[in-house]
């Protein structure tokens, strides 16, 4: 029933959007047709006052030791991995780890009975990368599509891979198993609470994220060396316990106990049985120096990730040489269920409720709350009147041509050493009552799935930069939203300004411990696209303390018939 209600809500929302769109079109048409009969027009614009303030949606201690509130971080559209220290000290360091379920793609395997030996257990989780060139020897050169922070190959951090002892549920028992289970970005201690020394599978204290391709060389059926190439990835042979033991199969007994010992049992008969037995893997990231953390961070492509359990048996040994090329003795597992990103925030300063400056940060971060038409404004007679009353008095008098919000980057507070990749390219604007992007988002048809940075740029422009690639300003268009308030008596709700890693993503992330409601003063969700960005920026707010060239602007362009 709850699923049905949730689906109905989705259809109702889509219906409302269509109704509002039609209503907006009708209002434009009616006003325009009335004005067309009048010969004289006055095109003008007006700046309106509004309230801006920073809101931190997941308060935590500055040390990052005690994360009080998290955001839903399972089943995101991507996963962050690594260490990112923002060049602007106030934003501190984000350390991103992953807890993931893994399961076979086939069941009831027959590994054979005689002379079974494990040859390798290759874990491969690709980064998002682009092939740049291939030389005459077949060697490939790649670039990583998104590496954030210091991209030097010597940026090391500690990577530990554990066998998880925590069961990640698919469904929430508190909803009578009708809704998906939420897991949160601050729950790493929960997932790691039952770990023992024997659960550590692999450890690398000098792990780096780099764009180097991986290769393996084996003899083919003709006895010739054959090289297989893999794009940049976390690629580890989990038969070994780490780089220092690359020639020692110290994990042989572990994998034998998981697979060989369970041949013919219920463990390998279904996905649910396997997940109850093998609860997943934890990829724990730690900076080498917690007081002065460094490193780099990127995205993992779990859709193309796998574990290949490669073994041999008597049947293969007795077979002809070409049998060595067969996949018959490779058992494949994939990451296709719950994957949870967890974040450790270190040395982050608290700027909650700051109005002069708007501190926008992704992951477990902060956003800006906007209250349009606040305070008083001077009317045509020179009197100060409530801003919203003045605006509403223009109903059926103004044809709104365009409405914009412009925010200027505070370059005095951002570290000048920041690179182009440290600043977010895009922002998005949400209706905080209905927890959706504003109407202009849906009316912008310039969707680009190949290059999301260039998607819906009519609604939210790409960050304008100066000649040094430093951020200058962001511009958001909210023409339909404002027209809907004036002509259709829509509520003037509070708005939320968030960083957007990918504006095409509409999924939401629940804030831990808060129930969804229709109160725009209660922040209960954030866009998942914000969670997926570790970047941050500081904008000038709208306040009397800020000089006008840099003060945030809320401007409406309109056409009005002359009297």
Average per-residue pLDDT, rounded, comes to 89
Taking the sheet with the most strands, its summary is: 8 strands, antiparallel
Which consecutive residue ranges, at least 5 long each, have pLDDT under 50?
1-12, 14-38
Q: Share of helix among residues?
A: 10-25%
Structural class based on helices, strands and sheet pairing: alpha+beta
Q: Given the C-alpha coordinates, what overall shape results?
A: elongated
Oligomer: single chain
What's the total number of strands? 33
Classify the beta-strand content into a percent band: 25-35%
Q: Count of DSSP helices?
A: 9
Explained architecture:
This protein has 9 helices and 33 strands. The protein has 563 residues and is an alpha+beta fold. Strands 3, 4, 9, 10, 11, 15, 16 and 19 form an 8-stranded antiparallel β-sheet that branches. A hairpin with a 5-residue loop joins strand 7 and strand 8. The radius of gyration is 28 Å and the shape is elongated. The relative contact order is 0.21.
Top keywords for this entry?
563 residues; alpha+beta; eight-stranded antiparallel β-sheet; five-stranded antiparallel β-sheet; 15% helix; disordered N terminus
Question: Care to give the gist of this entry?
Answer:
This protein has 563 residues and is an alpha+beta fold. It is 15% helix and 34% strand.
Give the arrangement of secondary structure elements:
Layout: H1 2-36, E1 41-47, E2 50-56, E3 79-85, E4 93-100, E5 103-104, E6 117-126, E7 129-134, E8 140-144, E9 147-149, E10 156-163, H2 188-192, E11 200-208, E12 214-219, E13 225-230, E14 233-237, H3 252-258, H4 271-277, E15 281-286, E16 296-300, E17 306-312, H5 314-318, E18 330-334, E19 339-346, E20 357-361, E21 366-372, E22 376-378, E23 384-386, H6 387-392, E24 399-408, E25 427-431, E26 436-437, H7 439-443, E27 464-465, E28 471-477, H8 479-488, E29 495-499, E30 508-510, E31 525-527, H9 528-531, E32 536-540, E33 553-561
Antiparallel strand pairs: 1-33, 2-21, 3-4, 3-16, 4-15, 4-19, 5-18, 6-14, 6-17, 7-8, 9-16, 10-11, 10-15, 12-13, 17-18, 20-32, 21-29, 22-23, 24-28, 24-33, 25-26, 25-29, 27-28, 30-31
Helix pairs in contact: 1-8
